[in-house]
Amino acid sequence: MSEYQEITEWMFGQIPMFQNVGADAYKPGLDTMRRLCEAFGNPERKFKTIHVGGTNGKGSTSSLIASVLTESGRRTGLYTSPHLVDFRERIRIDGQMISEDEVVDFIKRYRALDLGLEPSFFELTTIMAFDHFARHGAECAVIEVGLGGRLDSTNVITPEVSVITNISLDHTALLGHTEPEIAREKAGIIKPGVPAVIGHASGDVLRVFTDTAAACGSPVILAGESPAYSSATLTDTHYIYKNTPWGDLTCPLTGDCQPENANTALHALQLLSGITPESVARGFANVTGNTGLMGRWTQLSDSPRLICDTGHNPGGWQHLAPRLCKIASEGTLRMVIGFVADKDISHILDKMPRNAIYYFTSPSVRRGLPAAELARTAGSCGLCGRIFESVADAVDTARAEAADDDTIFVGGSTFVVADLLSKYV
Q1: Which of 39, 90, 232, 284 has its CB surrounded by the most CB atoms within 10 Å?
Q2: Would the pLDDT of 384 be above 80?
Q3: Domains of the chain and any CATH numbers
């Protein structure tokens, strides 16, 4: 076993990790994070940042902004979570992942400090990202919130712009049981005097954001009320955004939620200096190559068409369900789905097409909902299918049974998509 493998196994196994244990790994509060930052020389102060929170669309919005910044010639960090296949996906500069040697070096330096702290996995990963960006001369970095906002480990930064994509019910046990309660946690990333871009909000949720911004003396830009393009047209391979402030743009992110994410990113970019039409056009067109973004209505093969998406809560499925229902109405749709055990999935299952063929499975994390339990819950929602022990078994069976013109969809949980990509990419 390599030293890198030993280090990452230690991180995954010894430090509480939300991916594995859920709420028990969540450490609200910033005291530990501030002490880590101080111990490493406050690296988070050595580059400019854009902070991106919200329930859905954080990863896509962060990646669009980072890709444009890279194309504008700025050395740009990108910190996202969770990873799908490789831990190093979380920490990138201009699309390049942190190296294995640098992960090992950081953990050695952290251990040598002997701080007497017990950081969570996410706290340790966040300070690793800040340290990496500072040591490698990042001029700016796009920082995606891990969970919530107000008490999230990333909330030690003072960004150039705060971005909140949208709000829907997710992680309710930790963030609140209503959308306004969740919005109050997400609004915690709004900083005094720092412009805040709100992607989509209305009613009581919108009032939470505007009231918070007013209390902070922060300008607020309501992206959802003023589209940054005249139209968004979907082709087989990309969206075309007409008449943006930088001209017409194409983007390979084709999920139904992507026009909303693109609009939010475009509004944020208008607040940054040095952004040219050329850098925006290249940034949007090259977003997947520049950032490694995967799992956003990503098509992995043809004949049969194999698609995966990381949408995992009711807000995400508001966009996924109509597209899947349309596919099921026009041909054969095979659904490989699995979830984690600490989510209420009934509202998601209610949205799924009734005329699809279902393969119920479980992601390979400790939080995974057993496939048999998923099948029972799905049956009560009118969905019938077979049970498979692993994502790989379910996908292999679906592919073997599919005709060339069938569509296979894999999703329900980020970790189901991670299992898929580990096998097929």
Answers
A1: 284
A2: yes
A3: 3-291 (3.40.1190.10), 298-424 (3.90.190.20)
pTM: 0.92
Residue 17's pLDDT is what?
Answer: 52
Report, as an integer, the average pLDDT of 329-346: 92
User: Tens digit of pLDDT for each residue in 135-178?
Assistant: 999 999 999 999 888 889 999 999 999 999 988 755 444 455 68
Q: What is the mean pLDDT of the chain?
A: 92
